[in-house]
Amino acid sequence: MTRKKVKLTYITNDSARKATFKKRKKGLMKKVSELTTLCDIDACAIIYSPYDSQPEVWPSPLGVQRVLAQFKTMPEMEQSKKMVNQESFLRQRISKTQEQLKKQKKDNREKEMTRVMFQSLTGKSLQGLTLTDLNDLGWVIDQHLKEIHLRMKNIKEEAVKSQSQVQGTQVAPAAADNRMAAMKIGGEGSSSNMAMKSCGEGSSTQQAALERQAFDHMHNMEAMQLQMLQMAAQKQQQNPWFMDMMNAPPPPHPDHHHHHQHMAFTGEDMMLPFGDHNHSTMWPNPPPAGGFNFP
């Protein structure tokens, strides 16, 4: 069974008031004793009543004098820091009650203006409102607008976050496909493609892969050209008489000013000068009897 809440008012009945005093005094003494034991502090109690000629003290008269002497040695500011009398106590209670009343009035006013705002949205006129009412209504509307803007901002941030997460899940398979394609191209082409890695997201990843393929293709073409040049140089070294022929000066000819000799080359095949003139003097090393055998 729950204990009934006691109403803190003066008890007009003498016998009930005396019984309550004895009961509460005994409880107060017990609480002071528990406080000194549990918290290891110095405390005392002096209780005057109209029912006893001498005040009742706790723990003893000597203990009370010792605690009071210790209290008087403290500075005056420390003594009165938490000390209250009946007047100051009542003032503190009145101030606290006034703050609570002010807060409650503000809440009621805000609820009233909120109701007026919703009624105006349904078509009710605002002609009967005073200037104070209109100012309060504007303040309430501003507060609701701030909440709406904040909610819209949070929704947009959540949408952007969820969209970025979806794009991240879509980019991961695309990046894996790009890496597989790069490895396949590297196996068919040059071995340098094996080191190609997919970076970026979406179209940037595909563009990077295409640029890498174009670069590798150009690199392969340059390597092939260099290889062809090296093969041509080797062939020239194997046929020194060909280089002597190319570097020898042309012999004088009586009809030098009237006849022009033409040399034609096609790939690695060479055709002799046109005409039936004898050009044996232009060869420092005569060709073999069976003719030239070009590789």
From TrEMBL:
Pfam families: SRF-TF
Keywords: Coiled coil, DNA-binding, Nucleus, Transcription, Transcription regulation
Cell compartment(s), UniProt: Nucleus
InterPro entries the record matches: MADS-box/MEF2_TF, SRF-like_MADS-box, TF_MADSbox, TF_MADSbox_sf
Domain MADS-box: from-to ranges: 1-49
Claim: Transcription regulation is one of the keywords in the record: yes
Coiled-coil zones: 87-114
Nucleus recorded as keyword: yes
Main subcellular location of this protein, as a coarse class: nucleus
GO cellular component term of the entry, any: nucleus
Annotated SUPFAM superfamilies: SRF-like
Gene Ontology MF annotations: cis-regulatory region sequence-specific DNA binding; DNA-binding transcription factor activity, RNA polymerase II-specific; protein dimerization activity
Highest taxon of the lineage: Eukaryota
Biological processes, Gene Ontology terms: positive regulation of transcription by RNA polymerase II
Name listed for the protein in its UniProt record: MADS-box domain-containing protein
